[in-house]
Amino acid sequence: MNNLNFGIKQHINLSVEELVAYALQKGEGSLCANGALSVITGKRTGRSPKDRFIVKDEISEKTVDWGERNQAISADVFQQLWEKAKQHLKEKEVFVSHLAVGAHPDYQLPVSVVTEKAWHNLFARHLFIRTLDATHQSQAWLLLNASTLSLAGEKEGVKSEAALVINFSERKVLLCGLNYAGEMKKALFAVLNFLLPAKDVLPMHCAANQGKQGDVALFFGLSGTGKTTLSADPGRYLIGDDEHAWSSRGVFNFEGGCYAKCIDLQQDKEPVIWHAISQGTIMENVVLDPVTLLPDYHDASLTQNTRAVYPRENIELRVESNCGGKPACVIFLTCDLYGVLPPISKLTQAQAAYYFLSGYTAMVASTEVGNTQEVVKPTFSTCFGAPFFPRFPTVYAQLLMKRLQETDASVYLVNTGWTKGSYGEGGERFSIPFTRKIVHAIVDGVAVKADYEVLPGFNFLIPKAIPGVDSLSLDPRKVWKNEEKYQDCQEKLILKFQANFKKFQVDHVVEKAGPQLSTQSIKSI
């Protein structure tokens, strides 16, 4: 266990009620009328990827995919920052919780979370796992969050007043000047994403749920594509909403709670999330009515990335073990701005590898600082979560292929974005109820039995009919009013896919599984 010699006083493993009381006492937040603790994170209302670093040493030098996403920092700089953080906390009260990430006992990673703010510790208590397996205590990690410590930027070897540094050799995570709590969650996600592949386990940025017959479904997707919303299904048992791993024996959750988007939350469309936000939970950057103190989920004046964090216990239908068997189906959620992708496509295993590596979607209510518009631009995020995966992309793609070959799970690409036209040019976004029907057809086994036809260009298999769904809506060609504009947008998107995929060195079969133009275009992308 790491040395926890921090602060003049340590509050260790406090209850939810105690942490809320301290947060209110210290003026860190206020109580909402629904019983949640409401907090404001300041100018950083999302993750700060430009301030994220990994210590480059013998362990990481040849195994991390260094670059803009995984920025290198020296062990000496890390040590200087660590000592500065310790000095910063020397005269403060600190909050400590001994928790874990990884629900499966064979892969669980203990972590001691030390924070100077009570609400950050409450966040960790809700989101991480509270039942510890003593087997792995010698491998415990230490996460230190000095959220009010301001750094000197380049003078201290970083880029701004804030920094997040992961040190694999010392099993430490350091956060300085970062008040947005999601940074803690994604830091430990990155840690497991680095460690698990060496154990033949695929870490995934995905949600997971289970049917009454024990059938498991996975939902991959970037923030804003519907991962949390669609996995929180009133008719299925939730495993988790965001971070999982897939071993040869099945899947398991990394976390013990959920971190759900709140923007435009409505009780009738997202009842599970609505009811989960209650006494003792946390709401980040959600605007409250000044009179009633009720949350205004439609107010995005602070950020589009409003959030709520709550324990899995707040969800009635959940898998108690936090683990599941081998998945029967895998769903890639994508938000297509061009409006040319079908609402459901069945993928071959080669196509699954191609679209997993591509990770195409749009930045909707982005979790990164600086992205404030509702939809910024189309993007490609490898493995549907590029910022969180330290190793080379093909490591994760090869593990995905291995798991698919072992299970023969069906893979689908589901467009939760635009149809009938592109974004801002006459198109409209698929509604949540519509997409739920598509998802239900997949998880209930209806889609796998459907008759399919090939969609030219992308060469997807698309169903001719799905019960309860207008058949015309299943084929994007049939809902556009202008066929020429449809072809033009399809061509633009195909060229973007091809340009993005040039960076990958993969088998010829996987490369050819991507979209193809019948006649190559010289149009600018």
Tags for this entry?
525 residues, Phosphoenolpyruvate Carboxykinase, domain 1, Phosphoenolpyruvate Carboxykinase, domain 3, nine-stranded mixed sheet, 28 strands, 25% strand, globular
How would you characterize the overall build of this protein?
The chain has 2 domains: 1-23 and 48-179, Phosphoenolpyruvate Carboxykinase, domain 1 (3-Layer(aba) Sandwich), CATH 3.40.449; 204-256 and 320-512, Phosphoenolpyruvate Carboxykinase, domain 3, CATH 3.90.228.20. The chain starts with 8 loop residues before the first strand and ends in a 13-residue tail after the last helix. With 525 residues, it is α/β, with parallel strands linked by helices. The chain contains 11 helices and 28 strands. Strands 11, 12, 13, 14, 15, 19, 20, 21 and 24 form a 9-stranded mixed β-sheet that branches. Strands 1-6-7-8-10-9-4-5 form an 8-stranded mixed β-sheet, with helices on both faces.
